[in-house]
Design a protein that fits this description.
Number of helices: 4
Order of helices and strands: HHHH
Radius of gyration: 12 Å
CATH topology: 434 Repressor (Amino-terminal Domain)
CATH class: Mainly Alpha
Strand content: under 5%
Number of strands: 0
Shape: globular
Oligomer: single chain
CATH architecture: Orthogonal Bundle
């Protein structure tokens, strides 16, 4: 988390809150977050959708 926070030029508490679900990202922040992680934002959305669908069962 600290390395990602440094790449994002944010305090590590920002990343921690996002990862723990205490803070949500808007669309622009989400794309920026994905890029800093080296993840294609579209692929990230597909993963989120899969998790949400699986949790409905």
């Amino acid at each position: 988390m600290r390395a990602l926070a440094e790449r994002m030029d944010k305090p590590h508490s920002f990343v921690q809150k996002v990862e723990q679900g205490e803070r949500r990202l808007d669309v622009v922040e989400y794309v920026w977050y994905c890029r800093k992680l080296g993840v294609n934002p579209q692929d990230g959305l597909l993963l989120i959708e899969q998790v949400l669908l699986a949790s409905k069962d």
